[in-house]
From TrEMBL:
Molecular function GO terms recorded: peptidase activity
NCBIfam families reported in the protein's UniProt record: hydrog_prot
GO BP of this protein: proteolysis
A Pfam short name: HycI
The entry's keywords: Hydrolase, Protease
Protein name: Hydrogenase maturation protease
Matches recorded under PANTHER family: F420-NONREDUCING HYDROGENASE II, HYDROGENASE 1 MATURATION PROTEASE
Tree of life domain: Archaea
Length: 166
């Protein structure tokens, strides 16, 4: 028997009770339903609104793909899919990306901390623009954000394939 050792980890972030903010979790649910049609050697995790606990999830793999909601990124329309590398988030030229999540700690804030306290794998972030933080409790995604769930899957699969070929 061999030990399972994933080389790619996909992390979905979000709060399912806050409408569109739950989009990252919805994406990992969709990926899990794909089952055997996804390549071997990947780990799919629902991180919820884990905050700094995500630091532990960045260890033990060659590549991490994070999916989360984004709010107010430039002129992106609701449901837009934005791709960031770690360097994109850490660049002074992209300070506006600090508004990167509806959670207490945004992914960009957490990755800045991570860069200083641990060795990091290759990191890619897919942010789905939600337009605004929803104040009412709802488990429903808006039509634009729901459509983005299906549209982001091929981009994630492409990232997985690229990582596994290296």
């Amino acid at each position: 028997m061999s030990e399972y050792d994933p080389s790619v980890r996909i992390i979905g972030c979000g709060n399912l009770l806050m409408g569109d903010d739950g989009v990252g979790v919805r994406v990992v649910e969709a990926l899990e339903k794909m089952g055997d049609s996804l390549p071997k050697g990947i780990d799919i995790l629902d991180a919820g609104v884990c905050g700094l606990d995500i630091l532990n999830l960045l260890e033990g793999v060659d590549k991490v793909i994070i999916v989360d909601s984004v709010v107010g990124i430039g002129t992106a329309k609701k449901g837009s899919i934005l791709r960031f590398d770690l360097e994109d988030l850490l660049s002074k030229a992209n300070e506006h990306v600090g508004i990167f999540s509806a959670h207490d700690f945004g992914i960009s804030d957490i990755l800045i901390i991570a860069k200083h306290v641990q060795n990091l794998p290759k990191i890619v972030i897919f942010g789905i623009e939600i337009g605004e933080i929803q104040q009412d409790i709802s488990m429903d995604l808006s039509p634009e954000v729901l459509a983005a769930v299906d549209r982001v899957i091929p981009y994630i699969v492409e990232e997985i394939d690229h990582a596994l070929k290296i």
